[in-house]
Write a structure and sequence with these properties.
mainly alpha; 0% strand; 159 residues; globular
């Protein structure tokens, strides 16, 4: 029996739901631009990606908090997923890897974030595996998977 799409939607964490809503907002902006200006898919995707990078895309301000940048290729992939699978195609595929949320591990002021920032300051050329090993020493219930925080290493380096 197929999984109820509403069940999957209901299980989304706040961050996953915001990413889904942001993807829909960007696809809407792309579709409107394509239709109102008579552009091809590729040109409309490129135009929205460029406008988004310049922070002039026809989306609400909160979308810029969810995504720092979006490429035409990403818009093309999202559009294809939406065409093939509907709303389900835009929901993150990785699923919940942990019962704990990213925010509970690395939210502002969290102990693990402080450890990571100090480690990165002392070891600016470390790999994500080295960082994972260091963080694993500071938690009792295991670290989150590497993907969520390895993507944040670059952001944290500036703190």
């Amino acid at each position: 029996m197929p999984t109820d799409p509403l069940r999957r939607l209901g299980r989304l964490e706040e961050g996953g739901f915001r990413r889904l809503a942001a993807r829909l907002a960007l696809l809407r902006a792309y579709a409107r631009r394509r239709d109102t200006e008579g552009l091809s898919d590729a040109r409309a995707q490129a135009a929205i990606a460029e406008a988004f990078d310049q922070r002039t895309a026809a989306v609400d301000a909160w979308v810029y908090d969810v995504y720092e940048s979006v490429t035409a290729r990403t818009l093309r992939r999202w559009a294809q997923q939406f065409r093939e699978e509907g709303l389900q195609g835009l929901i993150d595929k990785h699923g919940r890897r942990s019962e704990r949320s990213y925010e509970s591990y690395f939210g502002a002021g969290s102990e693990l974030r402080k450890v990571a920032l100090h480690y990165l300051a002392d070891h600016p050329d470390c790999t994500s595996t080295e960082l994972l090993d260091e963080l694993a020493q500071h938690v009792d219930d295991g670290c989150p998977p590497a993907a969520p925080y390895s993507a944040s290493c670059g952001k944290w380096a500036g703190e």
